Amino acid sequence: MWRRASQGLLALALVATGCTDRGDDPPDSIPPGQGAATAVEAVDELVEALNAADFASASRLAMPDHAALASLAEGATLGDVAEALREGDQEVAANFWAGFAQGSGAFLSDTAGASDGDVVEEAGVEFHTVNLSFPSGENRVVLVREQDGFRVDIFASFGAGLADKMAAPVERLLTTQTDDARLVLANLGEIVPSLLVAAEQPENTAQVTQQLLALVELITRVG
User: DSSP per residue over the chain, as a string?
Assistant: First the structure.
């Protein structure tokens, strides 16, 4: 998650899911790809892709299915989310990063480099901390996981900006008895470790931490 000085970036994850009507959208069909060779390279390659507006390349640097689930926060239909989970969410991820870049502008362009940080574990899942430094002396972190290469964990990194808006859609899912609802809920269960890591970040306000833990409680209610 970005440090406190860049807390406004967390809201960009919400902007990102609303980019599907823009004229410069990514292509309609983006093949799946491998993640980066290391956690640091995942962040470096993401920054490079965002600065180049190469959102198709950026799509492979998000954990699979995370962008599809994050779209719940921006009002995506249950059917659309389920379809992305079944068929792959590369296009959704490309749109996520397109919105992120649009909202952050040149924010990431002046980074002085990325470096390895601690590896933390939550519920048996390893999260690699990547530190970003800036000429101003400011530092930020991104959380990365390994799955077919290294990829940015959207919920561990940006969960503070997503949890509150995801609560109502998840509440509705709990009362929807369809195959689509069951699929989405099952996939939401996979992001619980990410949300718990997001809740542990020291820059969180008490309200943000509570929102993250409340979302975990909702998701695990069906477990």
Answer: ---GGGGGGGGHHHHHTT-TT-TTPPPS-------BSSHHHHHHHHHHHHHTT-HHHHHTTB-TTHHHHHGGGGT--HHHHHHHHHH--HHHHHHHHHHHHHHHTTTTTT--EEEEEEEEEETTEEEEEEEEE-TTS-EEEEEEEESSSEEE-HHHHHGGGTHHHHHHHHHHHHT--SHHHHHHHHHHHHTHHHHHHHHT-TT--HHHHHHHHHHHHHHHTT-
